[in-house]
Amino acid sequence: MSAALTWRGWLLDPAPVSRRQARLGRWFRAWLAFQRNGLAMTGLCVVSALVLTALAAPLIADPRAAILQVLTERLQPPSASHWFGVDELGRDIFARIVFGARTTLIIVALVSAIVAPVGLAIGLTAGYFGHWIDAVLMRITDIFLSFPRLVLALAFAAALGPGIENAVIAIALTTWPPYARLARAEALTRRRAEFIEAAELQGASHLRIILSQIMPLCLPSVIIRLTLDMAGIILTAAGLGFLGLAAQPPAPEWGAMVSSGRQVLLGQWWVSTIPGIAIFVTSVGFNLLGDGLRDVADSRSS
Amino acid sequence: MVTVAAPAAVTDGEWVRRVAGPIRRVWRLLFSVVLTFLGLTCVTFFIGRVIPIDPVLAIVGDKASIETYNRVRSEIGLDLPIPVQYWRYLLKVLHGDFGNSVITSQPVLQDLLRVFPATLELSLLALIIGVVFGVPLGVIAATHRGRWQDQVIRFGSLIGYSMPVFWLGLIGLLVFYAKLGWVEGPGRLDVSYDDIVPVVTGLITVDSLFAGEHDVFWNSLGHLVLPASILGYLSLAYVARMTRSFMLGQLKQEYILATLAKGLSPFRVVWVHALGNVWVQLVTVIALTFGNLLEGAVLTETVFAWPGLGLYMKNSLFNADLNAVLGGTMLVGVVYIGLNMLSDLIYPLVDPRARERR
To answer: Which of A99, A264, A272, B63 lies 20 to 30 Å from A110, alpha-carbon distance?
Structure first.
């Protein structure tokens, strides 16, 4: 108890003695603000549960059950042995949901891994150098910004063929522009700051200034934006899966699972309904988490 | 003399503000619209090129000799440099020529015009539902910030924009059509009502009213109400959320206090003065919502077997009918660009301040 108190006191010390203490203290205060928001904490729990499920999938459910077809047991309702029932090909829905969490997280992670660096690179370059570079890059960004997302993803998936990688490319291609705008706005406001001038006088290269001085300042807003976008990315991915354009059977994917249950919807509601609930809960979780993070950031800046 | 010259100078400035400013603005807008359109054609052209199907092989078959192959290849212009190919593609698109659909063996444009009204009917009704309910709910949430009304509305819209639309559609069909029988099932009309009403606008509800076929009207409305309500709910969620945050921004302003101090009723201040300013920002949101409805059509129409643009594109997709897919992409893209342009044009009409700037 006393240890926790001293930790807390050390973190909340108004006069930190080291840089690390100051930084950790700032994070701790943000966490305290975040913690007070019940909805945001719910979101954090949902997202953590998703990540844990995806990481520990083989421990939670039998990997073979997700794909193994036991035709004699097909379309069984939820029971003690099959918590979420059995689908039309005799596969355990619980196992497929658990492994489907992996598919969803992989898509989200890959999209973020493409979108954030690309958006940052384009936006920071445009904002830092300005002039015609800015004009050209922002024109391109605006063009991509005014494209219909799902339809373009559809056309790309049609051209490249269905599959997770192509779904990721298609979603990423229509998701990066807001990040470029965000990064550009941040770079523009910092461009004339005195610490940038100081770095320039010390002889730092443009690349070094962008990477070490400006980019770290953009990261929080990019991360918040990513969290808020996650739900949209998950819904688009599930939509592509529903249309049969993301993960290919027999790989478990929630959108495709909803689609495959359509034929038996009237008699066996659980086949379609349960994966739909999984998509919905995940998307609510990311929305709540994103809103919470944004509130914390807003209250800190104001 | 001085008194005469002074008004002349004012009218000069007036002229620049009234005419030259808007002309420059419209010119700039046209420039960006043309550029975006070119970008769109670049993307569709690129997609058409990267497709793994060899268009020449599709025509000549794999038993053709190398001479035939090369002849066909140059006939369809694939041996030309890429920029020339793009130019030819652009000219075709500008003439409304998207090639023929493989499935219907009709020009894609003709197909698109045939299926588009169905999508339009559905998304327009959904948009109306979204705006008529979404805006007041957003205003109420903002004026009751933090109280139970706000919590309920925010929670309702959170559910709306976290919902996978295709899944909600399936559940809606299961509950309201299969179990309760309150609405009609998938499709736009029962089979027995097909081909009774002549196609004028393509919107069956409107056409049947004009033709005086009330049975057809009620039947088509029965089919329309479920998908339109579901899409309407999703748009409502977004519109209410945006209205709430815009209204919160307005209610903080000092003029609100001033109008209240003047003795205007709070009702009037909120619904006339504050909301009047919010409409300006809502124009863009509504245009965006309509765009989302159009592209979301691919999913909803698949669920409801609604014979519109989305279902057409989806079917083309699975029959490797690339002309039809790219034509549909182009149509949605053009409508999207058009909506953006429209909201940019309407913006200064509803907001005098935007007219003053630049």
So the answer is: A272
ipTM value greater than 0.90: no
CB contact under 8 A, A266 and B296: no
Confidence (pLDDT) at B58: 63
pLDDT for residue B55? 63
CB proximity A167 to B under 8 Å:
no
Contact yes or no for A143 and B40 at CB 8 A? yes
Q: A239 and B299 in contact (C-beta within 8 Å)?
A: yes
Q: Mean pLDDT throughout A28-51? A: 83
Give the closest-approach CA distance of B192 to chain A in angstroms.
24
Q: Tokens 């400035």 label which residue?
A: B13
Do the chains contact at A284 and B166, CB–CB below 8 Å? no
Name the residue with higher pLDDT: A75 or A183: A183
Residues of A whose CB is below 8 A from B47? 155-156, 158-159
Amino acid present at A51: V
**pTM of the full structure:** 0.83
Mean pLDDT by 10 residues, chain B (358 residues): 46 66 78 84 78 64 74 72 81 79 79 87 90 91 85 88 88 84 76 71 75 78 87 90 87 84 83 82 84 82 87 81 82 84 76 58
Displacement of CA B153 from its chain's centroid (Å)? 25
Contact A244 B318 (CB under 8 A): yes
Q: How far is B249 from chain A (nearest CA, A)?
A: 14
**CB A102 within 8 Å of CB A67:** no
- Residues in chain A with CB shorter than 8 Å from the CB of B152 are none
A140 and B158 within 8 Å at the Cβ level: the answer is: no
Q: Which chain B residues contact residue A150 at CB under 8 A? A: 295-296, 298-299
Q: Would you call A268 an interface residue with chain B, using a CB distance cutoff of 8 Å?
A: no
Task: Please report the pLDDT score of residue B201 as a whole number.
Answer: 74
**pLDDT confidence band for A280 (50 / 70 / 90):** very high
Separation of alpha carbons B108 and A297, rounded Å: 49
Q: Any alpha helices (H) in chain B, and if so which ranges?
A: 2-15, 21-50, 55-60, 66-75, 82-94, 108-143, 148-161, 165-172, 204-211, 214-251, 254-261, 266-268, 275-304, 309-318, 322-350, 352-356
Q: Do B39 and A154 touch (CB under 8 A)?
A: no
> In this complex, is the C-beta atom of B50 within 8 Å of any C-beta atom belonging to chain A?
yes
3-state class (DSSP) for residue B44: helix
Is B190 strand, coil or helix? coil
Q: For residue B274, give how far its alpha carbon lies from the nearest alpha carbon of chain A (Å).
A: 24
CA dihedral over B229, B231, B237, B242, signed as positive or negative: negative
